[in-house]
Amino acid sequence: MPAANLQDVVAEIAAEMKARDDRGDVATYIPELGRVDLQQFAIAVIEKDGTLTEGGDCDSFFSIQSVSKVFTLTLALGLAGDRVWNRVGREPSGSRFNSIVQLEYEKGIPRNPFINAGAIAVTDLILSGHQPREALGEILRFMQFLSGEDSVYIDKAVAASEERTGFNNRALANFMKGFGVIDNPVEYVLGVYFHHCAIAMTCRQLAKAGSFLAHLGQNPATGHSVVTPERARRINALMLTCGHYDGSGEFAYRVGLPGKSGVGGGILAIVPGKASVAVWSPGLDASGNSHLGRIALEKLTARMGWSIFGSPLSASR
Amino acid sequence: MPAANLQDVVAEIAAEMKARDDRGDVATYIPELGRVDLQQFAIAVIEKDGTLTEGGDCDSFFSIQSVSKVFTLTLALGLAGDRVWNRVGREPSGSRFNSIVQLEYEKGIPRNPFINAGAIAVTDLILSGHQPREALGEILRFMQFLSGEDSVYIDKAVAASEERTGFNNRALANFMKGFGVIDNPVEYVLGVYFHHCAIAMTCRQLAKAGSFLAHLGQNPATGHSVVTPERARRINALMLTCGHYDGSGEFAYRVGLPGKSGVGGGILAIVPGKASVAVWSPGLDASGNSHLGRIALEKLTARMGWSIFGSPLSASR
Amino acid sequence: MPAANLQDVVAEIAAEMKARDDRGDVATYIPELGRVDLQQFAIAVIEKDGTLTEGGDCDSFFSIQSVSKVFTLTLALGLAGDRVWNRVGREPSGSRFNSIVQLEYEKGIPRNPFINAGAIAVTDLILSGHQPREALGEILRFMQFLSGEDSVYIDKAVAASEERTGFNNRALANFMKGFGVIDNPVEYVLGVYFHHCAIAMTCRQLAKAGSFLAHLGQNPATGHSVVTPERARRINALMLTCGHYDGSGEFAYRVGLPGKSGVGGGILAIVPGKASVAVWSPGLDASGNSHLGRIALEKLTARMGWSIFGSPLSASR
Amino acid sequence: MPAANLQDVVAEIAAEMKARDDRGDVATYIPELGRVDLQQFAIAVIEKDGTLTEGGDCDSFFSIQSVSKVFTLTLALGLAGDRVWNRVGREPSGSRFNSIVQLEYEKGIPRNPFINAGAIAVTDLILSGHQPREALGEILRFMQFLSGEDSVYIDKAVAASEERTGFNNRALANFMKGFGVIDNPVEYVLGVYFHHCAIAMTCRQLAKAGSFLAHLGQNPATGHSVVTPERARRINALMLTCGHYDGSGEFAYRVGLPGKSGVGGGILAIVPGKASVAVWSPGLDASGNSHLGRIALEKLTARMGWSIFGSPLSASR
């Protein structure tokens, strides 16, 4: 079977997704996110040679929310190395993104860096020895560097909305602080956390920013080495097992790619050795992942033979 | 970087593993398994063209225990199709292999088919409308067919040992029965379950039996199509996210392959598009997975560039 | 305020309870119990001087179910003394009668002797060194001795009904067996447990049987000393804190007496120093306690000033 | 058996407790409490006729900590009536004082008003429509009124110590706020909570303050009616089932009185119809209750025949 043509596939998916009636529901627990237009959909694919294939609303900026956790983990591993793993585990949680139950049973150590508690602990490591403003600046510059675009920004209205309503995250952070897992003042850590979740970028920018994960740690467009090959593989492994909270198994089963979703409706997915993919549609499914985003990725992987669990292309080699 | 030579790599790994002092501990909760010689180690790799590369004690038969769950799931999917997913979920459990807590919170539906409760529910589906002896015969013949060898057998002493001491599995099965998740009489289901866990085979046979999972559902040696490509990918995805109980994230992080371990010390690992690998060493680590088996797979994947999360080979293409 | 007249109060309560429309629902999880006539209600009070005051269907035999746990605990304390507390705790569980969650977290030790797991562990202690038939005979004779009536019997149809459907109890027993908390074969222990739960007696007999708990361990009618004063007080304390599963706090709050309920619709309540009370009505509330039985006890306590948490009588002395 | 003489019994207990070597350990999680002299012990008993019998360090002021929860519940019931029970349950928790697990499973509704989460929810009700300073003033004046002494005060150093380290309580409050169970700003609620826990008084004052609970809601010394008889009984019932966290069953079993302990080492115990008892010794046992305080109460109840579960006095009447 010859590989399908990526441009055709992306165009068909974008057209279908724009037209579908089932669009999911916008997140309401962060009020500011509730205002986004449900009709939007975007997809951007960057291949190894730098070719960009895109469809839909790829000029729209959206709130990347938890997709930012992939990048703060990358930063923290660069700053603290394997000390990160003294503060946070590497196992799927089997629980919702904001569950506090396991924190009590496991003495304040979050299961992995992609649930809220884990990402807050990672933010605490990035903050160490800095003012919140400095740490946040570092995270933002990292995103601008990875995407190669200065227009990536922090949406302060979204951050403020979450600061007003983020009681559950405040509970998680204080709970970890009580166990000594958080070093810095809780409000400092949460300030940085709420703001890095409020980073706004386009699908095109997000696909570029994730590109190093598809290519053994090196951004093929710029030639910059971001992390070692081993670290890139390991971040991908964590995205596969833990990237979608209590829907991680389902995403692996249906899509078959490492991925990380956010409640803003964005998903970053990695096709190791081939491509970095970003999709965005603000309506969410019951697990809090982008409804159309997940469907689009499932179709893309099936059509392109990109599942890491068995590809018709490698089979026919 | 050119690919390492598989024969050399396998020989080096086998030699190192035979020589190491750290060998883990044999499982003691099934008394019969406690008698196995800790010095043994075996590795067998079958590539797409049928080439077999092996090292260590590849003529030794061992109890495959939970590795059998991959094959009973395959059988049950063939018999019942997606009805399997009415009885068992597809998410990592975040808990030990024999935890009963989630069963209570989730009304008797096990998280996935690779924890004990899930595999017992799968066995119940295979049993439907059969006598235990018939169902067990079907499972055994399936293993003999997949491995192409009639010498695969059921070790009745091991099965009897587990029947005498398997109180926890009896609790799980009765608990599910109370929720109506098990149709057949509990003792029938457990009889089949204990016996299929007691299947004994060699590493060579196990690698052959798993070969269809590496090649889109088709055994390349025989040309037999066992399952559809999509189903093969999905079973691999489940092995990746759920194959090692509460050590699944760690295995994905370190080894980077779909795999399934058993307390007999065997592990089956799949390199999609490339190879099926079986390793065996009876000493276990704290999570109940083969200590040297896991290390051997980690070395094999690193040396051969076989991680599904990023390969130097695809990168250099 | 002068004490109300007990005969008048009991007669009024019996008349009101017979007439009420809200009668609860019969237990359905033990099919045989589902056949009982919902219209029935009985109340029997035995005071210190042996005076019996009764109303309603006091000649009807009913299945005492979990009320039997008070008596098996009493027997086991006589046989094994404080060794009982190595097998079972003394704290309220905060969970349903058949929860298995805490058993996993607490290594197979049930929270208290009045949840199912705890009562099964107590039955195992009574069984030690006996055949099931002997142990069961001992329990039955103890009930006949305490009530002073040979007509107390074991309803074999109810026991058989529970043996056919008691999967949850089978799960609990096997789970404890896996932790080494149960000594005897699981089926022996459950056989005795299901049969002692199926003891059938009248309200009059039950009130007599519990009389020793109201009078420092001594049955005032016969003068027989059953347990020491300290032990009687302690059994009453356990009934108060643990006698109604996850409705124990509510019963203490509303009724204010030590009590133990059963899904057959019976409740035994103790007024220390004054009286032993049995009520029975087969319809249950959402917590599995007799709906009208609880209301009757609340009215009786309020009218007679019998709450252990403050009595108008002692106040006016 | 004639009743023992209360003066002799109290004197003997005070002497024994002062002399014992096993004194428990001071709480360290509130640093300020760690400085208290372990050698101290006090006991004060106030009978119905107002007779005060005391022994040990009855002039020492100590931090009543969680004993204050009895009084804030009393206040909140006066202010909000049974609406209190929309925010907090009435069942024992079976968990530690600061567990957050049940809050997640039960949507932010604490099990009872005597665990930390429950007391915080009660404080939120008292705060409604007030400034923190006003609410705190009301609580303090209530304690001064009940004890009849203006010297009862709030130890600001203790409150400040807890404000600096109370991360777990901050987690609980934010978690409930996320579920909408808390109306006021979290820091306001916690400010009042930390300060009412820091109320300092003597054993004599505490015994007086609790006196209304022993006498159907009326303080016999002053004749003031504080609550209705029914409410007094119900508060006592809650103290019996929930007053000592996961040691409530044990306290009922050994002491046999409604009681409430605090980590400052104080315990208030109620003998309905007879007396109000306060004991204090700063060393705690493993459950966080005063080690010598509990032993003193056990001896007092046994010697005086005061258990609510059966009294030799009522038996001999």
Protein model, in words:
The structure is a homotetramer. Chain A has about 325 residues and is an alpha+beta fold. In chain A, about 45% of the residues lie in helices and about 10% in strands. Chain A has two domains: about 5-60 and about 200-305, Beta-lactamase; about 65-200, DD-peptidase/beta-lactamase superfamily (Beta-lactamase), CATH 3.40.710. In chain A, the strands form two sheets. In chain A, strands 2-1-8-7-6 form a five-stranded antiparallel β-sheet. A three-stranded antiparallel β-sheet of chain A has the order 3-5-4. In chain A, strand 1 and strand 2 form a beta hairpin. In chain A, helix 5 (about 115-125) crosses helix 9. The longest helix of chain A is centred in the middle third of the chain and has 16 residues, at about 130-145. Chain A is globular and about 55 Å long. The relative contact order of chain A is 0.18.
